[in-house]
Amino acid sequence: MKSIRILITLLAALPALVWAASAEINYDMEAFEGDLENKPSLQSGMRTYMNYCLGCHTLKFQRYERSADDLGIPHEIALQNLILTDQKIGGLITNAMSPEKAKSWFGAAPPDLTMITRYKSPEYVYNYLKAFYVDHNRPFGVNNKVFENVGLPNALLDLQGVQRSRCDDAADARCDELYLEEGTGSMSPEEFDAAVYDLTNFLYYVGEPSRLERHRLGIAVMLFLVILACFTYLLNREYWKDVH
């Protein structure tokens, strides 16, 4: 009965989820192409996530051990550099933030991000992380071009630096252009873009850890079917040669 109630709840919420996922974004989105073969990128993205995101956002459907094994990180290094609490290597990637306190601080508890690239899309996450800008009318002093009136601070501010929005010279005075104040971040724009790519690439992997294995298995299955089709054709011709 409990599973049936959960299913009914999910079905009832589906229209709202579809509407939210398809909401129009009036911002020129940059393309993003994930690369699950790029282990250094995934390792860098995991390091950035653990240092800048995990304090608020969990990955509670993913385990440290699975991530370390898939990304080629020895368990000793993961324990020393990536697991910043007393959790075990086999534990789920969670934090100590209380949902009740988080709701009072931010207005809503920060969401778990295990499935964010599947729910929103990798392009959404990549552009969202780059689109924060100064807005003194917001509680945390920042806003976001991809997610207007976002209720969270810019976790990567120290890396990116101070970014502001200015209007163009067109008659409609759109204020979509973002510019960075030089020298305000610890990274250059190129380095920050690479860091955001790696972080998004890691979240792309977390959304479906078996994706790369599934792709490889699919190729093997297709090759098997092609070979089987060749033998089947030859066998069929052998059967029918006396008839014709």
Provide a compact summary of the structure.
Helices cover 50% and strands 9% of the residues. The chain contains 10 helices and 6 strands.
Question: Overview of this structure, please?
Answer:
This protein is mainly alpha-helical. It has a domain of 136 residues: Orthogonal Bundle (Cytochrome Bc1 Complex, Chain D, domain 2). The chain is 50% helix and 9% strand. The chain is built from 10 helices and 6 strands. The strands form 3 sheets. The protein has a two-stranded antiparallel sheet. Strands 3-4 form a two-stranded antiparallel sheet. Strands 5-6 form a two-stranded antiparallel sheet. The protein is elongated, with a radius of gyration of 23 Å.
Write the layout of secondary structure elements.
Layout: H1 2-21, H2 39-52, E1 59-63, H3 64-71, H4 75-81, E2 92-93, H5 99-106, H6 116-119, H7 122-130, E3 132-134, E4 142-144, H8 157-160, E5 163-166, E6 177-180, H9 189-207, H10 211-240
Antiparallel strand pairs: 1-2, 3-4, 5-6
